[in-house]
Amino acid sequence: MKIHLPVREAILNRRTYEAPAEGRSNKLRLDFNENTSGCSPAVRRALAKLTSKQLAMYPEYQAPTQRIARYFGVRPEALLLTNGGDDALRVFFDTFVESGSGILICEPTFPMYRYYAEIYGARISVLRYGSEMEFPLEGVIAALRKKPRVLFLANPNNPTGTLLQKEELRRILKAATHTAVVMDEAYAEFSGFTAIPWIRKYPQLFVAKTFSKVAGLAALRLGAVIACEESLALVRRAMPPFPVNLAALVAAEAALNDGATMRRYVLQVQRLRAWFAAELEKLNVMTYPSAGNFLLANFGPGGPALFQKLEKQGILLRERSRDIGPGFVRITIGTQSEMQRLLKSIRKEWKAPA
Ligand SMILES: Cc1ncc(COP(=O)(O)O)c(C=O)c1O
Predict the structure, then answer these.
(1) Domain CATH for 146
(2) Are 280 and 191 in a shared domain?
(3) 112 & 74 share domain
(4) 75, 179, 194, 279: which has the highest count of C-beta atoms within 10 A?
């Protein structure tokens, strides 16, 4: 029997997303911007208390939504929980993007915007960050005149670390009269800025959050979208009834109740980020100012060989030679001892060009 599966054009024309490397758990994981200090011990205690009865029930969202909304300083109606930050991005395609619709992104950036855009058959307009990783503000303002359905902005941006100035954000929002502006704030806690209070003034603003980074819950997959109630109500129409699992909710509540652990981690990242950038500078390695829990560095032509040597030693970094330029790499800021181990290996293996 000959079967023809009626696959969508956009799927036929793409390859499977390469799954991130496996077998990382015993390595020095400075490649995915995870919280390498681990989550609060209170999370494990809370998860251990889950009962068989609870696990057999469909999850209830009201109480956890209230708790998480309080943490973000918004009303529960302004918060939508999602299955990880990736899923908090997908909902904008379900809500706003039809095949052939335009979306706007600034690269290099988080690859999931492009990934979803390709799956949904969107027309992707791309602007580039400058050679010093400056945000292409004027290009964005001009491109908004073409009324793309969605503008995706990671703030701080991954992998450049760039943080928008408030005035830049204000100009973008004023120009975005026909565009949903998604501020992906996966790393906002490390920057000290969040656009969440701005949702009261700008109904086109949607803030996407994740519990994978500062809260250290990447394995549990919890994200959120925050927007003014009326705008978020539209996004809700595209959601399934049970998008988030109970373990993620229990873990998130425990993590938020232990704010001290998250604050300690943020301070550690900020301190080590500055120290590590200064150490790389001493080795004549160029870095870019970062507001995230990572650092973009340029080791130049000798970079790729260095990254291979480090990988052989079990040190994983995120090489960006292909999309930014030879020798570019994104380095997650880990604990002090992890960063010292990395620096020691770099010192041993890398020779700056004369
Ligand atoms: C900018 C940005 N947004 C969203 C995410 C998604 O995070 P998750 O799906 O783990 O919540 C990431 C993960 O690296 C990211 O870098």
Answers:
(1) 3.40.640.10
(2) no
(3) yes
(4) 179
Q: To 5 degrees, how large is the angle CA 334–CA 336–CA 338?
A: 55
Kindly state whether residue 354 falls inside one of the protein's structural domains.
no
Decide if pLDDT at 354 tops 80: no
Three-state secondary-structure class, residue 16:
coil
Give the tens place of pLDDT for each residue, 39-80: 999 999 999 999 999 999 999 999 999 999 999 999 999 999
Number of domains in the chain: 2
Q: Ligand 1 within 6 A of 350 CB?
A: no
28 lines ligand 1 (CB under 6 A): no
Whether pTM > 0.85 for this model: the answer is: yes
Q: Can you give the residue range of the structural domain that contains 297?
A: 9-37+260-349
- Report the separation in Å between the CA atom of 146 and the middle of ligand 1, taken as the mean of its atom positions: 28
pLDDT by residue (tens digit) across 140-154? Answer: 999 999 999 999 999
Give the integer Cα–Cα distance in Å for 87 and 101. Answer: 20
86 lines ligand 1 (CB under 6 A): yes
